[in-house]
Specification:
The chain is α/β, with parallel strands linked by helices and 380 residues long. The protein folds into 2 domains: 52-153 and 278-302, 3-Layer(aba) Sandwich (Rossmann fold); 155-277 and 307-376, Response regulator (Rossmann fold). It has 11 helices and 15 strands. It has helices spanning 2-23, 67-79, 96-107, 121-130, 155-169, 184-200, 217-229, 243-250, 279-291, 320-334, 362-366; strands at 52-57, 84-89, 112-115, 135-139, 148-153, 174-179, 205-210, 234-238, 254-259, 270-276, 299-302, 309-311, 345-346, 352-354, 375-376. The strands form 3 sheets. The protein has a 7-stranded mixed sheet, with helices on both faces. Strands 2-1-3-4-5-11 form a 6-stranded parallel sheet, with helices on both faces. A two-stranded antiparallel sheet has the order 13-14. Strand 8 (234-238), helix 8 and strand 9 (254-259) form a beta-alpha-beta unit. The relative contact order is 0.12.
Length: 380
């Protein structure tokens, strides 16, 4: 019995040892060390280019084929840029209404606001003070500030060229000019036109009628008719509609348009037009806003050489020799040779105001308030 108990005890002990080995961790093979994983730096989120928002304020309808129409063609060119966004308000009277419209654009966060009429100058300056972070460009004015610059083009160059055509085409030696307001911009254009007229025809005179409005087709047409009744056989204009062109055609006279090619309104009368191409200037300004190089308190006055002003194609009635002589003068301007206001130049009283050997500088041109010899009318 004792022997059996002893054998049983040995068996139990062996079983216990087997269980102990079975419960222990089995030895593991050593694995090759893997390289430590490194977290890849997240690529910075690509920043979307900022959309530059531009607002345009117009004094007349964009469909007038005139001044606002030309500006709006420039705006449309800007709108084609994939980083630009534009908006406009048309037919905004100068004065309190324009101030309200300009302020509303500034409140909406436009990056740059273009105010395109001379009478918007003071409202632009006033609103700019209230919104120092916005940028403003005023067309044809002279006041500036830290966030207001002004711009215009040397349209007088195109006026001079159209005057060469008109002076060659008149038979009565009386040419009419329907003009809006007696401000330097308009006076300068009349003078340049008259200098061109008298270079082609020293006996001719240019008669001016003031309408005191930028856009009033009925009034513009009546003013043209009064000049036609006075014996003028070529009608030019500084107005926003083609009404003066239509009056000339109805009377069997010739006409010279402004702002855009107005030949479609008076194909039998239209000799040519002094035209604007605002696109290069507007795109340049927008690019400066985008890259941070835009500056306030500056003035831009671009020329035919810069592609901002030019003349429309000649009408079929213009002789080849006239076209050739005008194109020769145009080529000089395109090359940067501008001697339009080089002396000697006399005023209406026959007094020499620009002596021979000198020329009017930009300050004198921008402040011009007198008529050259050959203009019939008063500066008021």
């Amino acid at each position: 019995m004792k022997k059996m108990l002893k054998l049983f005890g040995v068996s139990v002990a062996c079983a216990a040892m087997l269980m102990l080995f079975a419960c222990g961790e089995a030895p593991q093979e050593k694995k090759a060390e893997e390289p430590a994983k490194t977290e890849e730096a997240a690529a910075p989120a690509k920043e979307e280019p900022k959309t530059i928002k531009a607002g345009f304020v117009y004094v007349s309808p964009v469909g007038d084929a005139g001044y606002s129409y030309a500006h709006d063609l420039g705006r449309k060119a800007v709108d084609e840029l994939d980083w630009a966004e534009t908006s406009f308000v048309e037919s905004v009277p100068e004065g309190a209404d324009s101030e309200r419209v300009i302020r509303n654009m500034a409140r909406k966060g436009f990056d740059i606001i273009f105010t395109t009429s001379f009478g918007y100058m003071d409202p632009t300056i006033k609103v700019a003070k209230e919104f120092p972070d916005a940028k403003f460009m005023h067309c044809s004015g002279f006041k500036k500030s830290e966030n207001v610059s002004n711009y215009f083009g040397r349209i007088y160059q195109a006026r001079y060229l159209t005057g060469l055509v008109a002076g060659a085409m008149t038979k009565s030696n009386k040419l009419g000019y329907v003009a809006a307001f007696p401000i330097p911009e308009v006076i300068r254009g009349i003078n340049a036109y008259t200098l061109g007229v008298r270079k082609a025809n020293p006996e001719a005179e240019v008669r001016v009628v003031w309408t005191k409005t930028w856009y009033d087709p009925a009034l513009e047409k009546d003013a043209a008719k009064s000049l036609l009744d006075a014996g003028c056989d070529v009608i030019a204009q500084h107005q926003d509609s083609p009404a003066a062109q239509e009056a000339a055609q109805e009377a069997g006279a010739y006409s010279v348009g402004y702002n855009s090619d107005m030949s479609s309104f008076a194909p039998k009368a239209h000799l040519t037009s002094a035209v604007w191409n605002w696109a290069p200037m507007y795109i340049k300004m927008m690019e400066e806003v985008r890259d941070g190089s835009w500056k306030g308190d500056e003035s831009m006055w671009w020329s035919l050489q810069d592609g901002v002003v030019d003349i429309a194609p000649f009408g079929p009635m213009v002789p080849e020799d006239v076209k050739t002589s005008v194109e020769a003068e145009r080529a000089k301007l395109a090359a940067g040779e501008d001697t339009i206001f080089a002396g000697p130049i006399k005023n209406q009283a026959g007094e020499v105001v620009v002596p021979e050997g000198s020329a009017s500088n930009d300050g004198e041109l921008l402040g011009m308030n007198w008529f050259v010899e050959g203009v019939v009318g008063t500066v008021k």
